[in-house]
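WARN retry 2 of 3 for item q-0093 after timeout on previous attempt; input resubmitted unchanged.
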Amino acid sequence: MTTSLDPLHSRLRLLLAARLGPEFPSVPDDADLRDALGDAYDSLTVMECVTAVETEFGIEVDLVGDDIRHWFATTARMAQFVGDKLEDARTLGAGG
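OK item q-0093 returned
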């Protein structure tokens, strides 16, 4: 399963690096971004990342139903979230 997320994960890291500054590339995938980046990862930045992820991957993040504080806390969780959303879209698309 991890192997299938590798290209997605790399794409996500490139997307985030453009928004989160020069400190981001050294942040481990499982590190809490608020702890690692401090004020550089505030609520406005989280929303900018959500919008960028939606645009880049063609998914919709439900601001009410999806637990953004959980899913957008680490790069690893974001990659899992995006992978799950893309898998759901493929499954639903194949069934229709």
